[in-house]
Amino acid sequence: MPELPEVETIRLQLEDKIKNKRIAKVEVLQPRMINVSAKEFVKRVEKSKVKGIRRRAKLLIIDLSSGYSLIIHLKLTGNLIYNQESDKYTNVVFEFSGRKKLLYKDIRKFGYMKLIKTSEVPTFLDKQGFGPEPLDKSFTLEKFKEILFKKKRSKIKPLLMDQSFLAGVGNIYAQEACFYAKINPKRTAGSLTNKEIKDLYEGLRKIMAASIKFRGSSVDTYVDLFGKEGQFVPRLKIYRRSGKKCLRCKAKLKTIKLAGRGTTFCPKCQK
Ligand SMILES: [Zn+2]
After folding, report:
1. Strand 59-64 relative to strand 68-73, pairing
2. How many Å apart are CA 99 and CA 85, to the nearest integer?
């Protein structure tokens, strides 16, 4: 599933391509992928201008001049693709002036695109109960300590992936951050030392910021706005490296299931 760096990559690219552009035409090909009738969707979206593109957790929010916003969750296999022709996986086609198209696609159709009033976006987001944004300036080490303290008994890796604890972190970056901080993913939040907490905080922020620079990690079906794979996978140090040698200590990496999710770690240097 696209995580914070992948969704942020798409947001940055959308900002570059469609901000302040007028949507000349909209075509709904899969009405069940949107929350209103195709007729209403077209009425609220067509001829409006894109005012801005925001991200909260793994959600993209496209604000339109009509007073409505599109909220998109790509879930497992969703894609937003610019300037390609639509195919059988295309749910919605947005056509901009100059015939440039933005496609909303989803092979397995677990994601969604919702049209709601922009004034109702804050309430919608509140209801999701997202935790803090890890790359925000306001997310300090002190803040991280504070939220960890409330979840002392939780296992650290599933906790990092809990969207109500931290927003946008998923299976890839939770494992990478634990590796960076030399923490066994099974440890409880309450067992972490100050040094480990600091390293984990630093790892999360550094790794995700670096991933954005490389346009994210293309595992499974994630591609960027231009249909290109992100370049961060070769820079991942632990994710899907089960059975291979640890890049830090050469021990053999191990994979376990934690809260139902495959988790790779180094039994020697992640204590
Ligand atoms: Zn190791």
Report:
1. antiparallel
2. 11
115 and 166 share a domain?
no
Task: Compute, in angstroms, the gap from residue 270 CA to the centroid of ligand 1.
Answer: 7
Active site residue 58: yes
What's residue 58's pLDDT? 98
CA of 251 to the centre of ligand 1 (A): 5
Q: What is the span of the domain harbouring residue 175?
A: 141-265
> Concatenated DSSP letters for 93-106?
EEEEGGG-EEEEEE
* Same-domain status, 190 and 248: yes
Q: Is 261 designated active site?
A: yes
Same domain? 54 vs 115: yes
Over residues 45-58, the pLDDT tens digits come to 999 999 999 999 99
Yes or no: say if 102 and 80 are a contact pair by the CB < 8 Å rule. yes
How far apart, in whole angstroms, are the C-alpha atoms of residue 56 and residue 71? 10
Out of 77, 100, 128, a domain closes at: 128
- Ligand 1 midpoint to CA 24 (Å): 54
Q: Residue 93's pLDDT is what? A: 98
CATH number at residue 159: 1.10.8.50
Q: Cα–Cα distance between 10 and 2 in angstroms, integer?
A: 10
The per-residue pLDDT for 220 is 87
Query: Is position 15 within any domain?
Result: yes
The reply to whether 241 belongs to the active site is no
Total count of domains within the chain = 2
Active site residue: 11, 44, 55, 58, which one?
58
**Å from CA of 73 to ligand 1 middle:** 35
What does the pLDDT look like over 209-268, one tens digit per residue?
999 999 999 998 999 999 999 999 999 999 999 999 999 999 999 999 999 999 999 999
